[in-house]
Amino acid sequence: MAQYAMAFDYELCIDCKACEVACKEENGIIKGADKHRLWIEVKEPLSDYFSLTSDREMFTQRQCQQCTNAFCEEVCPVEAIYHDKHGIVLTDPNECILCKKCIEACPYNARYVDDKREFADKCIFCVDTRLARGETTTACQITCPAKLRYFGDIEDPNSEISKVLKAREYFSFPTGDNGVHLFYLKPKKEKS
After folding, report:
1. 99, exposed or middle or buried, with CB in 10 Å at 0-12, 13-18, 19+?
2. pTM, rounded to two decimals
3. Distance CA 125, CA 167 (A)
4. Shortest CA distance to 13 belongs to which of 144, 151, 172, 175?
5. Closest Cα to residue 27, out of 138, 108, 146?
6. According to a count of CB atoms within 10 Å of the terminal CB, is the N or C end of the chain lower?
7. How far is 113 from 36, CA to CA, in rounded Å?
8. d(CA 186, CA 50)
């Protein structure tokens, strides 16, 4: 079974917001909406994860972590949240009762209320748009001028993301045993 994931070379981010705009355009989200689907966050000073010697601001890409054991799925009282065949966490908007338990349960603040469609939404790696059309990139990835995003099936050893995760050191933001599928690449150097 496929298991889609994304990795970021966060050191290359220039905070141009092209990914945010592309995501909103692809998914019909109001352009000024804050922290909807994905967003860029400024980190200062650098946390332990961002162990660079530089004192400059760092920009990190934040969005749904696509957990294997998703807290949002566990707390949904109507089982509207599920994993699809690609391992992507989805919400059935027709089943969601907007109780907001999933929003409260998400340790990444990745969920929000989609006021237009009236359900609890989040990033779904463009599975209903670009991937459904047979494309192999997400809107945020294809638009990024710095080309800092890697996306694909981590179960496929020949995929771009599998190759970059094999070649580079990386970290993630797991919370317990939820098994996240968003990875942050450390500054370039070959794995030893």
Report:
1. middle
2. 0.85
3. 23
4. 144
5. 138
6. C
7. 9
8. 8
Is the pLDDT at 191 greater than 70? The verdict is: no
Local confidence band at 97 (pLDDT 50, 70, 90 cut-offs): very high
73: enclosing H helix or E strand = helix 71-75
Residue carrying the six token digits 């998914």: 27
Long-range contacts, 173-180 (Cβ 8 Å, 24+): 173/49, 173/65, 173/108, 175/71, 175/107, 175/108, 177/69, 178/65, 178/67, 178/68, 178/69, 178/70, 178/71, 179/67, 179/68, 179/69, 180/65, 180/66, 180/67, 180/68
Tokens matching residue 105: 């349960």
Q: Is the pLDDT of residue 107 over 70?
A: yes
What are the structural domains of the chain?
4-190 (3.30.70.20)
Mean pLDDT value across residues 143-167: 95
